Amino acid sequence: MVSTSRRTLADDIVRALKAEIRGGSYAPGSRLPTEAELCRRFGVSRATVRGAVKELDVLGLVRTQHGVGTFVTPRPAVRDGLERMGSITESIRASGKIPGHEYARRTLRPLLPDEAERMGVPPDTEVLELRRRITADGDVVAYSYDLIPRSLLPERFDPEELTGSVFAYFENRLGIHPTLGMAKVHAVESVHIAWGPDAGKHRLFILLDQLHYDRTHRMLAYSRTYFVEGAYEFHLVRTSD
């Protein structure tokens, strides 16, 4: 049998640079040699180098900023399984980082009609609205917008008492155990999601639009969590069974 695939010069460059990136010759965030330098090193044309760099970009190993250069993609700060529902805080800890939460809003208010429809609750439901930045070792990895039914909270609830992980508050303060999540996943580009000192750097996100329930299918929360692209890496196990 004759093989129809042939290794090209661009393939050789990809293999060499991939090995050097993964071997640490180029640190995350560092710039690769220029096109001219790579042409001289490998003895090929600019078109061949551009093809190789494009392939590295597709593999997620580099990002090219036009007029500036090509840079090695920083490794994600946090890794998690997309099929697993759990606390973002615990995922950050499991990645060897220190989690943090910065709250911009903790407000009791009635639901909007579209929110009530999404949550499957009466339109006059009162909720606690939360807006927070989630950090890992001080770096923002996600922006979360959460709605929690007021009926779940203590009678004399003070919004200011919620300062850290929402899941930890459910478990430790309310004795509630989230066990089921119904999620939609979207890629989002927007300048209106991020806030705070790093807002200008964050415009690409993976949105996890998720409803949280307990074992009795009681609605616990509606969360729209925007994970900063490149800072949070999800893994998904897929089988044919």
TrEMBL record:
One of its GO terms (biological process) is negative regulation of DNA-templated transcription. PROSITE patterns: HTH_GNTR. InterPro entries: Bact_HTH_transcr_reg (IPR050679), Chorismate_lyase_/UTRA_dom_sf (IPR028978), Tscrpt_reg_HTH_GntR (IPR000524), UTRA (IPR011663), WH-like_DNA-bd_sf (IPR036388), WH_DNA-bd_sf (IPR036390). Residues 7-75 form the HTH gntR-type domain. It holds the Pfam family UTRA. The keyword Repressor does not apply. Keywords: DNA-binding, Transcription, Transcription regulation. GO terms for molecular function: DNA binding; DNA-binding transcription factor activity. This is Putative HTH-type transcriptional regulator YmfC. It comes from Pseudonocardia asaccharolytica DSM 44247 = NBRC 16224.
